[in-house]
């Protein structure tokens, strides 16, 4: 039995509120159970120097957690003078995941920055950030297309992410914190709606896993991604 009482292949409740902030070109508050992440998209008509003049667009991301997103207060990274390694890893993951679903030629030579701020954490913050980040990105691109600044839709395929793991010897979908902290195997799966894989992060956390178990987790991830991309498209409709 899972601590939450969910079935092995059951996602947490997922909700999305678009247009959550007034000023951003795209914004979405995504809630996956008790993990809540605010994702905003900002359009900049400049690109980083390393692609200037290439005609290609760029999508990048920044990620952070509020001090009381967790059960004890964390110091703000700004107060410490630098970002932690976990933060840098996650924001790079978000950026390259979202870029995988974008035609950068069609986007044109501009940059869209996705800011992911974790308001409350209960496991799966990077997955919620990617899933909500795609919604904010989609909304920002919609504005570009409506203004005629982009002619061909650069959003090739919805991108979403979900965690899966082996908890109490059973493969489970969408780990919350009690499961994540006790899982023998933990994985994050980033995929497109069409089933193409972008990134898979799997690691043994005290017990090894077999090829058959890995396949079971992949099957669960595909189910979760299918549900999440349907939610994404409904939110942006």
UniProtKB/TrEMBL annotation:
Q: Which family does it belong to?
A: Belongs to the RNase PH family.
Q: Which UniProt keywords apply?
A: Nucleotidyltransferase, RNA-binding, rRNA processing, Transferase, tRNA processing, tRNA-binding
Tell me what gene encodes this.
rph
According to UniProt, the name of this protein is: Ribonuclease PH
State the reactions this protein catalyses.
Answer: tRNA(n+1) + phosphate = tRNA(n) + a ribonucleoside 5'-diphosphate
Record domain Exoribonuclease phosphorolytic: where: 10-140, 157-224
What GO biological process terms does the UniProt entry carry, in alphabetical order?
rRNA 3'-end processing; rRNA catabolic process; tRNA processing
| Keyword Transferase found | yes
Enzyme Commission code(s) on record: 2.7.7.56
The entry lists its GO molecular-function terms as: 3'-5'-RNA exonuclease activity; tRNA binding; tRNA nucleotidyltransferase activity
Self-association and partners: Homohexameric ring arranged as a trimer of dimers.
Annotated organism of origin: Sulfitobacter donghicola DSW-25 = KCTC 12864 = JCM 14565
HAMAP family attached to this UniProt entry:
RNase_PH
| Positions annotated to bind phosphate | 86, 124-126
Q: Which domain of life is it from?
A: Bacteria
Q: Return the InterPro entries for the record.
A: ExoRNase_PH_dom1, ExoRNase_PH_dom2, ExoRNase_PH_dom2_sf, PNPase/RNase_PH_dom_sf, Ribosomal_Su5_D2-typ_SF, RNase_PH, RNase_PH_bac-type, RNase_PH_CS
Q: Name the job this protein performs.
A: Phosphorolytic 3'-5' exoribonuclease that plays an important role in tRNA 3'-end maturation. Removes nucleotide residues following the 3'-CCA terminus of tRNAs; can also add nucleotides to the ends of RNA molecules by using nucleoside diphosphates as substrates, but this may not be physiologically important. Probably plays a role in initiation of 16S rRNA degradation (leading to ribosome degradation) during starvation.
């Amino acid at each position: 039995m899972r601590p939450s009482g969910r079935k092995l292949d059951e996602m947490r409740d997922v909700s999305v509120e678009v247009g959550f902030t007034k000023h951003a070109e795209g914004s979405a508050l995504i809630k996956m159970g008790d993990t809540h992440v605010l994702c905003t998209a900002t359009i900049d008509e400049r690109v980083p120097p390393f692609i200037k003049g290439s005609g290609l667009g760029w999508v990048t991301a920044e990620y952070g957690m509020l001090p009381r997103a967790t059960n004890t207060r964390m110091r703000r990274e700004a107060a410490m003078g630098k970002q932690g390694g976990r933060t840098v890893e996650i924001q790079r993951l978000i950026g390259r995941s979202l870029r995988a679903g974008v035609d950068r030629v069609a986007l044109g030579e501009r940059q869209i920055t996705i800011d992911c701020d974790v308001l409350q954490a209960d496991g799966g913050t990077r997955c919620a950030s990617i899933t909500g980040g795609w919604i904010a990105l989609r909304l920002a691109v919609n504005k570009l297309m409506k203004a005629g600044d982009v002619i061909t839709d650069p959003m090739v395929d919805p991108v979403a992410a979900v965690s899966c793991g082996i908890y109490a010897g059973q493969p489970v979908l969408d780990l919350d914190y009690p499961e994540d902290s006790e899982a023998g195997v933990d994985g994050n799966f980033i995929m497109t709606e069409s089933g193409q894989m972008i990134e898979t992060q799997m690691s043994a956390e005290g017990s090894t896993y077999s090829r058959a178990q890995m396949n079971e987790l992949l099957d669960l991830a595909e189910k979760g991604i299918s549900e999440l991309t349907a939610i994404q498209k409904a939110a942006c409709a």
